[in-house]
Amino acid sequence: MMGQDQKPLEEILDSLEGKEKIVLMGCGGCSTIFHTGGVEEVGEMAEILTGEGKKVKKVPLPFAVFACYKPFSSMFVEEHKKDFEDCDAVLMMSCGDGLQTVREILDEMGIVKPFYPAVNAMGVSGGGPDKFIEKCRACGECIVGRTAGICPLTECPKGLLNGPCGGTRPDGKCEVDPDKDCAWYLIYKRLKEIGELEKIMEFNGPHDWSKSVTPRTFEREPLDLHKHLSRTKEVIESLGI
Ligand code: SF4
Ligand code: SF4
What we know:
Structural class: alpha/beta
Radius of gyration: 22 Å
Bound molecules: iron/sulfur cluster
CATH superfamily of the largest domain: Response regulator
Shape: elongated
Strand content: 5-15%
CATH topology of the largest domain: Rossmann fold
Largest sheet: 4 strands, parallel
Low-confidence stretches: none
């Protein structure tokens, strides 16, 4: 998931200065999980903006409907086409990925509007339900099969690939941040636990950063949405929801 925080309200209001009619669009994916752009947060932001004298049209996306996935977000854009046409600006309560996906959909429809983010994206983070930790820098060349399933690029502030820096504290904590465990202390312990300690002696060559030159692009077969959503429906029903 994309870890994220809401921007300070002052910054959001500054960005909307001079704009009266605002479309406020959320995201049913990570932004719902991080409480930065779910249905409730869109409602709360709409109230605030209305209190500031703005005319607001809400486009909240229900849970699991990702703003960054064109087949989903374009359905909502189509449904609210007139609101987008009439607005002075779009305030997007999603990460920059969702914002730019929706901006592209509108550009392709010939509806060219200013977009402003209400959210700061903070990196690929996992966990939940209440605590999330950045776990992956999306480097494009995953090596965690050699490091006990722990990413040294993300876990170690220096991104060291071949053992600790020499500053590891006697209690196994990191020299940069004494509140966190040294990545290589964790890797050593876990390699031992899974019977792969010999891997600590294997040399990891220089990382191929060319694989993380942006923007990276991907081509894939489109999903059969009907088939996949039917499965989701089965799961929802099995949960008694
Ligand atoms: S090695 Fe690269 S792809 Fe694998 S977890 Fe770390 S940053 Fe992510
Ligand atoms: S103490 Fe460990 S985690 Fe901290 S910088 Fe050194 S090698 Fe990296």
